[in-house]
Amino acid sequence: MTTSSSLSTGQTGATGLTSLSRATRRRLGQGAHPLVGKCLIALGSAAALGSTFLAWTWTTAFPGDLTVTGYPGGNQLITLFLSILTLLALAPALVPGGLPGTRWMAPRGSARLLRGLALANAASTGYVVIAIAWELGGVANYVAGTWIAGASALLAVLGAWLLPDDDHEPAPARPTPRWAQVVVVFVVVMLGLLVADFGVTTGFSEEFIGFCLGAGFAGRGLAASGLFDRFSALTAANRTATGCAVLAAAVSFVFLQSSDAYTSVADNILIFATVALGLNIVVGLAGLLDLGYVAFLGVGAYTAALVSGTAASRYAHVVLPFWAQALIGVAVSVLAGLLIGAPTLRLRGDYLAIVTLGFGEIFRITMNNLDGQSGPQVTNGAEGEYGIPDLRLFGYDFGRPHTVLGHTLGRFGNYYLLLVLVIAVVIFIFARVDDSRIGRAWAAIREDETAAEAMGVHGYRFKLLAFGLGAGLAGLAGTIQGHLTSTVTPDQYTFSSSAPPNSAFLLAAVVLGGMGTISGPLLGASLLFLIPDKLQFFHNKQLLLFGIALIVMMRLRPEGLVPDKRRRLEFHERETAAEEAYEELVADGLDGADGSDGLDELEAGARA
Amino acid sequence: MSVTVLLQLVENGLVLGAMYGLIAVGYTMVYGTIQLINFAHGEIFMLGGFGALTVYAWIPGVAHLPLLAALPLMLLGGVVVAVAAAVGAERLAYRPLRAAPRLAPLITAIGLSLALQQVVSLWYRLPGGGNAKAPVAFPSFGGKAFNLGGVLVQRADLFTVIAAAVCMAALAWFVARTRSGRAMQATAQDPDTARLMGIDPDRMIVVAFAVGAALAAVAALTQGLRYGQISFDMGFVAGLKAFTAAVLGGIGNVRGAMLGGIVLGLAEELSSGILAHFRDTAQYGQAWADVWAFVLLILVLLLRPQGLLGERVADRA
Amino acid sequence: MSIQPANPPASGTAPGSEPILQARGVTMRFGGLTAVDGVDLDVAGGEIVGLIGPNGAGKTTFFNCLTGLYPPTAGSITFRGQRLAPKPYRVAEAGISRTFQNIRLFPNMTALENVMVGRHCRTREGLLSAIGRGPRYRAAEREARQTARELLSFLDLDRHASAIARSLPYGDQRKLEIARALASDPGLLLLDEPAAGMNPRETLALRETIFKIRQRGLSVVVIEHDMRFIFNLCDRLVVLARGRKLTEGRPDEVRADERVIATYLGTAPGTAEQEASDAR
Amino acid sequence: MTALLSVEALHVAYGRVEAVKGISMRVLPGQTVALLGANGAGKTTTLRTLSGLLRPTAGTIRFAGQSLERVPAHHIVRAGLAHCPEARRIFPRMTIEENLRLGAFIRGNEDLGPDLRQAYERFPILGERHDQMAGLLSGGEQQMLAIARALMCRPRLLMLDEPSMGLSPIMMQQILRTVAELKDAGTTILLVEQNAQAALALADYAYVLETGRIVVEGTGAELLADERVREAYLGEG
């Protein structure tokens, strides 16, 4: 959480820095030859690279053991990787127009790419250098390698800022054969997997923070250089290949793991992300604010638990196969969604927010009360349904280790593969529905419901559809979650608690990630899960930081980390003041609104 | 079921409803002026309680005063803290988003609500060394309850009802009779034309936030006195209920908020009380009170979405 | 969609042809205020009717009643012999489409998407079909896209197809609204001040466009203040004043009508001076 | 005589759409100035900019020696510029008297008795129904209320935006008569009016707007005789 917030503030800080220094840069740029900048970058990055083979401190007290000479470890790996990247990124900047064959690296100009990468390296390396002094008590813990690492990373940044701006419109991509495109997509996705794997398996908070800083700034640099745009154009042109690549990468993650330690983290992220995606259909696509969404996850989990032969269940003798559990779980969730949605979706959106919030609370209370004391014994009350048996699907027992392709899959590994399948299904549904008659109807309702209805869109029906679909997908995730955690308790499904998923975290994953997009909630959910998981010192402050992050995000980047094109326009509408044009042109341009506004007022007056 | 029991339920419901009503006013006033569900209002209520407690616990001597003498000081403390928090939130969090799409301020409000809860839970310290992670004790009236023909009226109940009545009368006077009150109504009805009258809408919005916060602080005091404790997370359910009350009464309507509060309080007490009274349904009583309150909200939205004192439900897209 | 004669009918309701729209006694009250008071309106197939009257006469409110935005307090609206339910999406399905006085496009969607939304009620594909994407779905989607492109080029907007609606020039936004309205294959098009904010050249082009729309077999009802535009466009004019129908007839008849001059077109200079000196 | 209000090269835009494209005009103390033009010509935009509800993109507005381009709307009233908005915009859920008192908001807690009495004398119907909800008044009565409300702040310049809009001929005449009375009483008035002839008969000076620009200006009598005015207004030609 905090990293994401510090990330976003860091970003604006960086933007501020960029604009502030633009004038300075121009002045310097006239004096200093661009070659000076490039030399500094090369020198700095090379020295930083070299420093990773030196010791950075003489004590093993700093996590990751940075005392070894000749063999980079811990945070040094990040510095090593970023230094190499920076050196590579110099290639398109070396001669005007770029070294032949490297121009693709910076479609919009290489200066921004270099600045981003140099900054990423400096932030990540600088953070370690400072952390060494901070945690171990002073610069006495520095050795030569520390000084070299810190100074050279800074040198590279200095060099990057001496470079003149060379932003330009990206040249059109050269036509490449289909097979080459597919290869590129696969390679990039696999690289992405390695980066993600590194992040998920970071062993201590310093490494994770270094990773986040590096990845964040580097990502910004790549985006600014136009590489991301080019890659997303590539994926858009090769949807099936991208889908296969991502699926393959996701599956191979589990084969990179030697134990279940990080697979369980990945399982939790997947559950969280799946539900966040479901919520994104409701919030992002249909524009309905659901504050009790986690309850639908709970409905699915409880329903599945009740019919799977759970020991503590009233219906312990009912043991249905999983496909039946899933069907029932989804059906009950959809039903709950329709029951809540039907009366409220006719009203304006704010009511829905509160009613869903209330529903979340009611769900928790009801599950608590069906304990034999305050109501019939169904759910075992606050203690919850425990002893939910492991999943069994086509004779495959998810509780036992299986050897697949010579790799032993543990319990969490089994669930991981199933969850990848589920999230793939959710992504598939999300993408297809978004790009269809239904998706267009949702967008239209979000933009102007009255106009949408006048065009024949049955607003209520489509809102109800979104609400029911969202509830069903959450319910589906819930049916698996119950088996995975083997216990479901009412307190797992509250509005806010320190552990995701809960309604507030889900909403945050969507909002911070990017409403209406697929990758946004995935990124948001990963960050929101990993940050508290990796950074133990946040433990009791994460809800606070997370609340602050929501406020800051709405102020600075309301469209989220991965913005949807349309959303971005929506949120920055007023800045371009175009919407006012619509409104005001009525008030004035037409010098005679047929009095309809006045009539509305009158109508109100007459009723009062 | 005897009349006395029924009357006792009615008494409980009225008192509870008076408290809901006091909080609901804040929702209604803010909604009426800027169409924002101030999700953090429950936390403003909670902060009011802690403000009052701070005066009691930390200002030397206050704890030794007779409670009735200490109450005005505590009330002042609560009101100051709640109003400061609400006005600060308006200024720093909401105002910059005034032109943003509706979702932005609403999400901000959610963030604010979580952050405020956590600030209290993490950093509030009692003189004795306790913290506010769990409910903390609040002074309460000693002494026996008044017995009115079998109906027990606790001292705190009396205080609640009187406080609510005074506040509502003062509010009614403020809105209907004072220049600022009229200006606030004007801003709610037509902000642009209000500006043409020389009214600064920003000021009026601040007034709406402040008045709502002050009444929420009064409500928090009554809550503390009745239950003998307050907690950092009490704003969540109270806020939810109060919002329900505001919708019941017709959101945007100040008198409706009080009426809605009382209807909700009565419904909650009567439904759970009557259910608890009979053996067959006893188990669906107290533990389900929140559920019945919520069912009522759904019913009202279904049958009369504009609320009991129907202000218009603005559904223009 | 029924085929209508391509050549414009003579002014007035063509004898013998059953009107496609029949509004009878449409009344809309807001509390104590009667905004529309017992208005009758018949529109024949292929007819262009102008709806004029002073500001506040209830023209837009009448449109809103016709399109189900406001359920009328009294009166009935029959379209192609079928009584209309006062729900906007039902009205659109029945074949009445409209534009708005203040442009109400979906501002952040592309022009093409805007028009495709207009096609919404002529397609049926549901959730499962959208997920499964069978041949039926693909065909329907292709058809919708095709129709939308065709309409964009009909209104000379092809170059804007993938532009975000709100980035379009004002005049083109008005035209895009018409394209969107046409996408639902309506039999009757209601245009609410389509020429507002257009320059004289654009207004002239708009008139030609409306004639072309009539040639597609549609009837059109237009609210407009630009008298030159309306007199040269419409077969028949209906004048509303204070919620009531003041008069109706051919443009030249209406133009000569004393009452219309008095309430709308303005009193003749002589009487105005008289009036003003009275006022002193 | 120095102008009470002078506007130089005023531009106003909604986003990218420019609605007022360089208007210059003056209002002398005691004058009645009319602003005419077809729908969409930019009349209301001009008034809304003068009263601060909209911000000009360029140009200057000087009122009684003070520049107003950057002054917020609620301070402009204090300078003595009252705006009686288009479509009346009374506060429907307040009584007539409350509406009037709001008109005098800037005067603080002064005794409003004399002003209220004057308003009720001018419009007896308002006096008779002073404690009724304003939303229940008919259109013409609402217009009277709106004018009376604007006068409550004792403005130095009264801006009236289409006071006769949507009124019956009789009511329209009555409102115009009221405007004439105000003029005779020495009120400085900036009038936007649809009934061109009547407005010109009242006006000392008038400007005709077309798509955001002034195309004709002159004294009322001059414009009354001008064919172009009729053309700009009725689209006849």
TrEMBL record, chain A:
Residues 589-608 are annotated as: Disordered. CDD domains: TM_PBP1_LivM_like. The keyword Plastid does not apply. It is found in: Cell membrane. Residues 597-608 have a biased composition (Acidic residues). The keyword Lyase does not apply. It comes from the Bacteria. Its main location: membrane. It is a multi-pass membrane protein. The chain crosses the membrane at residues 35-58, 78-101, 113-134, 140-164, 176-196, 240-257, 269-289, 296-316, 322-342, 415-433, 464-484, 504-531. Pfam families: BPD_transp_2 (PF02653). Keywords: Cell membrane, Membrane, Transmembrane, Transmembrane helix. This is Inner-membrane translocator. It comes from Catenulispora pinistramenti. The lineage of its organism: Bacteria, Bacillati, Actinomycetota, Actinomycetes, Catenulisporales.
UniProtKB/TrEMBL annotation, chain C:
Keywords: ATP-binding, Nucleotide-binding, Transport. Coiled coil: none annotated. InterPro entries: AAA+_ATPase, ABC_AA/LPS_Transport, ABC_transporter-like_ATP-bd, BCA_ABC_TP_C, P-loop_NTPase. It holds the Pfam family BCA_ABC_TP_C. It comes from the Bacteria. Gene3D superfamilies: P-loop containing nucleotide triphosphate hydrolases. Residues 21-267 form the ABC transporter domain. PANTHER family: AMINO ACID ABC TRANSPORTER ATP-BINDING PROTEIN, CONSERVED COMPONENT OF ABC TRANSPORTER FOR NATURAL AMINO ACIDS-RELATED. This is ABC transporter ATP-binding protein. The lineage of its organism: Bacteria, Bacillati, Actinomycetota, Actinomycetes, Catenulisporales.
Automatic annotation (TrEMBL), chain D:
It comes from the Bacteria. The keyword Cytoplasm does not apply. Belongs to the ABC transporter superfamily. Residues 5-236 form the ABC transporter domain. GO terms for molecular function: ATP binding. This is ABC transporter ATP-binding protein. The keyword ATP-binding applies. Keywords: Amino-acid transport, ATP-binding, Nucleotide-binding, Transport.
